[in-house]
Every structure is written in C-alpha cells, then in structure tokens.
Protein 1
Amino acid sequence: MTRLLRHSLLAGLFLSLPASLVQAAEPIVVIESNMSETEQALLRSVLGEVDAPARSLAQARRRVEAASKSARSVMRSLGYYDAVIRAEVIETKAEARDINAEMDEAVRRPPQAVLYITTGTRFTFGDLNIDFKDGEPVNAADITEKLKLSAGQPAEAAPVVATELRLVNTLQAQGYPDAKALPRTAIVDHATKNMNVTYNLETGRRTRFGQIEQTGTAYLRKSFPKMIAPFEAGEIYSAKKINRLAARVTGTGVFDSAVATLAEDGTENADGTITRNVILNVEQGAINTVSGEVGYSTSDGSGLDITYERRNFIGFAQTLELNARVKTNEIGAGIAYNIPYAWREDRELDLAADVARLDTEAFEGERALANALVTQRFSRKFRLGLGLGLEASRFDQEGVETTAYLVEGLGRAVYDTRDNLLNPVKGVSVEGAIIPTYNFGDEDGTFTTLTLDGSTYKRVSEKIVLAGRVGTGTILSKDFQTVPRNRRLYAGGGGSVRGYAFQSISPLEVTTSVNADGETVSETELIGGRSLVEGSAEIRYKGQGPIGYVGFVDAGSVSRPQVSGLDDIRVGAGVGVRYYTAFAPLRADIAIPLNPKPGDADFQIYISIGQAF
C-alpha cells in the first residue's frame, strides 16, 4: 500500500505539469527560388511568420510588397546585386461543398503571397583598401593584417561590417583611444560583378596611460585603484585594459557601478604620443544591508537565516558579514570577512568563525570553528585556495560524549565556467578539496578528507536545460574513531539525494541491550561513512513567464570502507516548481525514495532559494 501511494504521488505530480501547446505559424510569403537551403532559411527568418493566412487580397498585397523590399535587402547583403524578384498574389477557388449552395457556386480560398527570386551572378570583392584620414598609425602593417578580406570572396555585407569593427578595435587596442570609422566607400560594379571597398579610418593621437583619478560617491584608499589596475602609468593605451580596470571594481560586488575613461586633456611626450590620466568613477551603493531567508524542509531543517553585511568600510572593497540561524536542526551564529584583492589583484582573503548547536539524525552536540583561506586566481575560470582551520566540538558518539580539537590544512581547487551561480544554464563546475587534519581530543590521531564534485549544464532548447552532478569523497584514517561525527560522510537531503531525510543515507550500527524487564532491545544509530558517491540529473523547463518546472533523479551511497561500494545505492526521484525572480529562482521540490529503508518517509519536501545544484 505504501509503495502504491508513493508511485501514485509521483505520477500525479508529473501529470500536473502543463503541456506545451504550440500553435503552428506559417511563412508570410511562399518563396520560389534557386537559392540554397541555407540562404532560403536566412530569408525566411528575416521575413518572419504570421499566425493566420491573409484575410483579403489587399492584405496579401501589402504583405508581399513589404516582403519584396526586405528580400531585396537580404539578397544584396548576400552579394546578389542582380537578383530578379517578382511578387505575386495568387487567388484560387474551390468547388462549393455546402449542400444548400448552388452547384456552380465557388468558395474563395485565402489569397497566397508568393515571391519568385532568381539570384543571378553572385558579386565578389574587388579592390580592398584602408585610407587613414589623419596619417598612418605607427603599426599600420598590423592594422592591415586585420583586413581578412580578399579579392574573389563573395561580396557579403556581414564580413564588411565585421572587418570595419575589427580594424577600429585593433587601433584602440594598440594605443589609439579616439580611433573611429568614417563612412566607408563601397562601389558595386555591375560590369565586372565586383564590389570595391575602401575603409576610411580616423586614428587620433597615440596615447599613454597617466595616473588614476578616482571620482564618484565611493570611498577608496588611494592605493586601491593602482593595486588592481592592469596597467602601469606610461604604458601605451589599451581599450581592453581600461575596461578591465572597471570590471575589477564591479567584480567585487560591493559597488553599484564603475566606469573608467580617459581625461580630455593630455601631456605631450617627446616620442609624439600624449599622456592622459584615467578617470575612474565609482558609485558606492548600499553600505549596510540586512537580508533574511526562510526555508522549509521535511528533513534538512526548517527555520530562519538572517545576514547583515557591511561593505567597503575601510576603502578596500571588503565585506563584513554577520549571520544568525535558528532552525529545527541548528542554532548558530557566524562572522565572515572577505577582502577581494588582498595585496594584489589576483588574490583573495577569507576569514571566518562560527559557533553552532547541531541536532540532526546522525549526531547531536556543539561545535565552534575558525579558518583563514587565501585564494589565488590563475584565470577567470581556475583558482586555488590554501588555508588553515581550527575546530572544537563535543558530540554524543555511541552514547558517550566525545570531545574533539582539530587543527587542519585547507586545500581547494576550483574550475568554473558557469554563467550564473544560482541559476546556471551552461558551463561546468569542478571542485576538489584536500583537508589533512589532526585531532588531539579524546580520540587523538590524524585523518585526511578528500572530495571531488562536478556539475554540468546545457541548454538544449530555448525552454529546456539539462543539468547533471556527480560527487565523491573519502576519508583516509588509521582509526575511524578519530574522525568526529560531524566530519564523517553522509548523504540525503535537499542538496544531496532528495527523497531521503538529511544525512539519513549512512552506515548503521545496531546495539542491543537488556532492559529492566529482561527484554532484549535493539537500537540503530547512523554513524557516518568513510566514502561517498552520489549524483543527480535534472531536466529544467521554463517558458515565457516566471514559472518553471523540474523533473529529477538523485542517487547516492555511503560506505564504511575507504572506497565506496555501489551495492547499497539509494535512489530518489521527484518534481519541482521554480519561481524565477531577478535575483534567483525560488525552489520547491517534492521527492520520493524509490528504494527506501525501513523507517524512511514516503516523501520529502524542500523549499529554498536557488537551484538544487
């Protein structure tokens, strides 16, 4: 009966998801042409579609006339300057089928708009030139190499425009901030079937970076902009570098905006260049914020999480965060301090401390911790962190209170290409950690925790995203009793295997005793494991509105040996609803265990902010 209830619940949830009703549209005109399939697809995408056929001859004529003008522009952009385009409206009739109508009466069908297109000879590029209106730049040869067009290529419009933009960007990257494109000259020669193009460029003065002058409402230490700048005073100007300066400021997350520009005036240099200072305008935004999060879960712990943040209070873009949590399985408070650019622009410092009273299915007790982590960013995608941590804890371990005092090293490597942390739709994330630890508490000894987690996201259509996650971990130790209860490995819960209670997937220890009546009593205790492997797969659907839907399957196994066995995998499945806000999606999931253990609930509910992974 319980199994029937569980599967009926899941089936009902899937059936409740809305079906996508797609109303077929039709092309605004029919195209009859000798164009290639790719060219016709481009033309159809430009002309667009309509929801219904033309209601009258006049409407059909208006459609075909507008389509003819657009088609002419498309054909020229593809290099068909001699294309012949003929527009026609076809009106047909069919015999009447109404038994009450006269036999010779005819029924009028919707008029059909048709474009007949003959491409003709495709024009090609002829002479290609660059004309520097105010004198050639010092690196004219490098600029000319960016032309990337040659005589004989199809005279398409897109590469002409792209090349002009590339030429200007190259000038700006090589020291000419005022470089711009003047109207280009393009001559179409119908006799030779060639297009001759001349790019007209204005370079302006070659420029060097000067000093950084900070403006705006934000308070910054004078040394801060110089420390994070990707250039030195006296360097040749680069548009990429000045934009990177502003991006590094906004990347801290503590300012509303940052814009870097060059000062209007400059100083003449002996080599013919000029030096112009950089104006960095930074707007502060909110310095103090208070936020709260209310979460509900039938297993992970429900309650309130309040966070206070104070930003940039000493002028180095740092953030101080105070946190308090009151949940059914945890009462705690913490403090965190982040310096996004610690001593140099590619290094970050995090300091944190936290105390909590924990009461979960697996353990009950208190712990206090403090740690420091320095993260080195090697690229936008890869970073490596090293640090030190301290922790003191007291947990009920097999009916006996055990105290642990830990000193540990922290090592973490992250490779992350996701487009969004709270709602990714593309990219991958891989994170590995190694934590060597010495416990000089009641069960003294050493142990090392190794973890590796990865997730990937792929948008397969405008409305559907596929997401997958795998994770594994192991604890290396000579004596497992050395590992405190809160440092052992567990699975189950909203961020792990949904459908199972938080930390309920774990090796068990059964103890027996004899009570006062002489009866033998057995007690089962979750003791955690040395090794873990788990994974999740989701299909996420979001239409035009703010509501989205998710179907998922999770699986996980926790074992006592150091290498996880796959003989006791627990699998859960379910569906969820997402309400997408400007900040992050609000998540509500319901999941059932597909192969539950005795005592597992029929389903679990999870409500929180952000995707499950």
Protein 2
Amino acid sequence: MRLMQLIKSLNKFKIYSDAADTSMPSEGWSKKTPLGINAKQSRTIDFEVKGISCDSKQVSGDFIFIAIKGVNADGNNFIQEAIEKGAKAVIKSPDDHVPASPKNIVFIEVADERIALARLAAEFYGNPSSKMRVVGITGTNGKTTTAYLIERVLKEGNFIPAVIGTINYRFKDKLIPSKNTTPGPIELQSMLADMLKKGVNYSIIEVSSHGLDQNRTDQINFSSAIFTNLTQDHLDYHKTQEKYFQAKAKLFKNLGDTAFAVINNDDAYARRLKSLSRGRLISYGIENKADITAKDIKLDLAHTEFNLAAGDFKTNLDIKLIGRHNVYNVLACFAWAVGEGLDLETVKLALEKFNSVPGRLEKINSNAGFSVFVDYAHTEDALKNVISALRQISKNRIIVVFGCGGNRDKTKRPKMGSVVSKLADYAIITNDNPRCEAPEEIIEDIKKGIEGDNYCVILERFEAIKKSLSLAKSGDIVLLAGKGHENYQIFKDKIMHFDDCEVARQCLKSMNY
C-alpha cells in the first residue's frame, strides 16, 4: 500500500517534506485538504509502504514510524534512529521537535498519534475485524475465564475461534505468549489479519482499561461486548475510579448499531454502563432481575450446580468450575450465546464439558489429604471472591499465600491485606512481582490493613509456599494467590522463572505426597 493511499485513513493532518515541490508554503506546512498537498507533490513524496512501527528498533526500509509519547518513553526521542533504520515517513504530534535536515523524509503532523496509529494499522492490514465476528470482554475480574468459556462454546458449535488475552494469544495450531492483555494496534491488526487468512470466524479479545485508554482497539469492529464487573484496580495508571470506569465504558460507547452488549446486572456500575452503551442490551445476574439468571446454586470442591433461565429456555447446569464468581462467568458466556443466536443445548453441553482455566482456581492434584489451589487473584475483590468461594465449600482452615506487585496501585495493598486476614484462617505474605520496589516496603503496605496476628512474612516465595503446605492438615485448603498462570517473577535487576503450580508439585513430592 502506498503512503498517499494509506494516510487517507487519517482524519485531520498536516504534511511537509524537503522532497516536495518548491511550491509548498515557505514555512513547510500545507493547509490544503484532503491530503494537504497537490498531485505533483504527492508523486514526489509517495512510496510503497513496507511496514509501520512505533518502535524504532523494529523499523526497516520504507517504513512509517509513529512517534508515540508513552508512559515510560517518548517516541519523539527515537525519530532520528528510525530514519537511520530506513523510515521514509514519520507521524508525530504538532509541538514536537523535528531532527535537523531529515533528507527526503515525509513528516505528518496529527492531533493524536495514538488514534493515528490505530487507523493506520487497521488500514495497512485491510481492516480484518470487519470480516469476522469480534467479541470484546472487559472488567476487573473474569475476563480470562469468560474468554475460555466462549472459546469452548464456539468449538463445540464447529466454529473456528481465536483468543487474544492475558494468558496467551491462540488460534488453530498457533500459540503466542502474551505480553499485554490487549496488544498494541499494529500487533492486534496483524494478528487479526493472520487469523482471517487461517479461516478464523470469531475473535475473542480481552480488552484492558489500558488498551482502551490508549486507543489500541479504536479501529476494531466489535460485534459484541461483555462487561463482567468493576472494582478497584490500576489506580496507579488511571488515578481515580471514575477514570477507570470511563476507560472501560469506551468499549460500549463505540459499539456499532448492529452490535450488542452483555452487562452484569448485579454490578454497581451496570445502570450507568447500560445508559452509555450503543446496540441492544442483554443482562445477566444472580441477585437482580436480568435476562439470564442463576438460581439454587450448590457449591462444593468438585463442581457447581445451578438452575439457569434464559427466557423460555430453562435448564440445570452442572459445571466443573467452582465458586459463585464462576457462576457469573458462565452466565456472561451464556448471555453472549443468546445474543449471538447460538443453539443453547450445544452451549449447555460445551459448558458442562469445560474443565478449567490455567491459574484460575487451578487445583493441584495430590494425595495429601488437603486441597491446593493456584489462582491469579491480585485485587481486593478477586481475593474476596476466591476465598469466599472456598469458604462456602469447606469448613476447614484456609491458608493463603499472597503478595502485591511492585510499581502498581499502592492503595490496594492494605485492602488486600485486610481481606485475607479477615477471610482466611492464616496468611503468609510473600513476594509477588516486586519489580523496582523494595519487597520489604510492599509488605509493610500490606500489613497496614491487617488487624490480627494470623499471618507471618516469608519473603522468598518458594519458602512461603513450602511453609503453607507444611502447615496444612487433613481437609484444609491452601490457596496460592496472585500469580496464577504466570511462570516468572520480576525483580529490579532480573526476571526469573517461577511457577506456583510447579513449586507446589515439587514441594508436595518432597513431602511424599
């Protein structure tokens, strides 16, 4: 695709180049529309675009480089490097400095470089989301499990689904490690284009608040959107709960008229979100009146059973997932299937076949006589949900190993400490991913929310897990919380391999279980 064709996807912009005809305005800026340059100048600076990137290290010959002002780095500082690597066009915001004497380089000024990036990426890869069904799932908790459930339902119905989410990006026989829950626009559009070529007809995307706030999904044509819940998280980035909500709400505000939204009616933000959503609405819930409901819920350590009602369709569901929070995830999936018009008996069959999600109340099998679960819970609400779920199905002790991530929302640390100390019988506070913070300071923040003395601190996570298992007696439950599917720990100076499931199995084996 040629440059002049590609930048038609942008809205308002200005363009200049020392390669253009001398009839350009003396200050180098053109105010003409729609392209801002005349036909003769277009021929002078036009070229076949081989790729686009916002990472100067990924730039090659005949690329467009987009200078993004990021959270940790400013792409404007890497314009010269991008040019040296072969970029022939640079997209930037209006007030940024241009390197001296950029020989034959096209500079394009835009009001918002992130929006420009999303538009260029979609155009460059042929707008693949308009040629498949795309499901967006957002919320503080439950996104990953809901995505897995929808994937299972679609496979049961002989569709070809793909998933882009927290654990990995996957479709057909391809598995890509996940760096971000929602990747950037270039990677996102590139993957969708690849998926389309491989015959994928449904793409399920976990849409993070960061991704929405940074316009990563701006040009994705979502056929449906699911809201799971909203509790405190990511305030290190969003600063306030209201801004966090508004970021999530963007997914629903931007839906097309033919799309539909699935809303958790039991969440405090449901009413506001429904008033902001475009497209038709489908609700689900347990406590409040909704289109899809669950009643007579029975929980134990092996499964969950409940009566589901979806209009005239009523059935008893017996699923292998445990806990009330997973009933909500199943309801979200079922509500989406209703909106999509899928065969509901097939949906029921798929849900009852479904086993588990990596790192989401994942049970570690052993003959120890006590139960061990690994879960990704790393917020106050997620910990409350998981521990409460375990409390409902066991009268014995619950021992929790947990920590908090460094360089993340500090205000949730004492709240997490409070929840664990109140709901668990005993807690071992340890390292999560301390990143660049001192682990001892993170733990001190956690301890501020603890009122009792039913805890200890063991900094090294391996030793903390080992200790928790040694404390467990017959019938007890040990919950290893916070890291879930992750197989690494991030420290200031290194990233080391660490997998809670592996460590738990290793420790149990050493204990002859």
